[in-house]
Structures are given as structure tokens and as C-alpha cells.
Amino acid sequence: MDLSRAVTILDGGMGKHLERAGAPFRQPEWSALALLEDPSYVLDAHRAFIASGADVITVNSYAVVPFHLGDARFSEQGSALAGLAAKLARQAADESERDIRVAGSLPPLFGSYEPENFDPERAPAMYRMLVEAQAPFVDLWIGETLSLIAEAEAVAHAVESGPGPDELWISFTVPEEPSVSPIPLRSGESIRDAVDIVAARCEAILFNCSPPEQITGALAELHRALAGTHSGVLSGAFANAFEPKPTVYSANNALLGRRDELDPAAYRSIARAWVDSGASIVGGCCHIHTEHITALAAEFTD
To answer: 175 falls in which pLDDT band (50, 70, 90)?
Structure first.
């Protein structure tokens, strides 16, 4: 697949797909609970997103981290669960008549949207374990929902020093309502600084698990930062459709509803604007379902 010449379609939000499908699903385990109790739901989810038109499916290892499993269970079962998740994605991809790529997921270890909790001392060994477990089954890596530059650097180091493919996509998350312009990362660090530090270590920089309106602004800043020296780095986005978070919010203590107005047609229109601005990778995150991916595939597939 020549990513420089085509729009690549990612899958949608695994966790919310599993919840909607009736899979075992609750906090704090989130999407990892299906791996623990009934992995067939995960395989079926991958198949559904492929049938909807996804070119790349992401391993369901997002919640295979201490934040969702707890330290003890992560230490005891994390490697086996990440390996199982990657094997399921590979199986679904290999069943397809199309060329489907599998992205190994390297998520936040200490909480989504919580850059202050990142532990640079503990992170390298944890990311190394996730890389080693998924490596036999994946075609590329995606560090997703990252909130700060140091988190992205830890992901890049794990990929560069570990087994498996070299291709890495880095995907940041941005605040729902930033108080400054241009839009920063959730850590407050600038997108331009992030590009200067990580662009040489990855093939693509994306934004995900943020409101699509905020991602539109973040992409504009990203494209300004990539122009010139980093013009060979691809860009993209996969937004969520979460309702606004309450003032006091913890990712493990709430299940957010979805914005009904972000139906497939509306989301397709937003993604079209992203692509027209220079993005070449689009998909969905939480509450973006198979019908949204079908709409994207219809819009961007020749």
C-alpha cells in the first residue's frame, strides 16, 4: 500500500464497539475484559471493521496496561493478553481478501488524558513487554492517545530497540477546550515542539481520541510544523464522539455517552476537510462505529 498516494482508512473505536456488541465490558478493564472472558468478540470486531472498509486494524491492547488491569495483573498476564490481542488481529487480517495491515497498539500506560501520571522510569520496561508480545503479528506500530512528548519518545525507543517492524505512527490527543492558541498537546506542550522531536522517528503523526473540531485545529498546526524539513511525514486523525467530559473526570470511573449529531454523514464531512487540508490517514476512535468507517471508505476509496 502506497500511503503517500492514497487515503488510508483506519478502523473505529474497539471499546465502544465491544460494548455495543454485548461483549464483556466494564471499567476498569475496558476493552481488555473481552480478552479475559470471551476473545471471540474481539475477533468479530476486527472482522466487522474490515468488512466496513478499514485498511488498517489496531490490536486490542489499548487497555492491556496497569491503569486498566492493575499492576499485579499486568505483570502476570499483560504479555499473554497483548500477544492474544495481536494474534486475533492478525487472524482477522489474514482472512480478508484485501491487503489488511495490523497496527500494534502502544497506549498510555498510566491513564488516558493524564500526562501528569506518566512515569519515565517504569515506562520503558512496560513498553518493551508490549512490543515483544505483539511483534510477531503486526505490520506497524501506533503509539495512540499520547498526551506528552516524553510518552512519544518512550514509545519510539521501545520500537527502535525491540523486535518487529520499524514503521511507527505517533498519535497525540489534545484538550477538549484549550485555553490557548495554537492548540497544544494535553500536556500543554506545543505541537511544533512535538514535531521537532518526534518527526524524525516516525512515518506519520496523527491526532486521536479528541473532539473532531479540536483535531481540525490541531491538524492545521501540525501541517504548518511539518512543512519543509518534515514534509515527508504523513498526517492523519481518528476522533472520538464523546459527549463533553464532566468537570471532575477520571477515565476509570465513567463511561461517557456519544454525541448523536456525529452520525456517519457528519463525520465523513469532517474527515473530508481533514484530507483536503493534507491528511492521508483517517479513521475513528471511541463511539465511531462500523457505519462511520463504511462512510469513510465510500468517500475515499476509488
So the answer is: very high
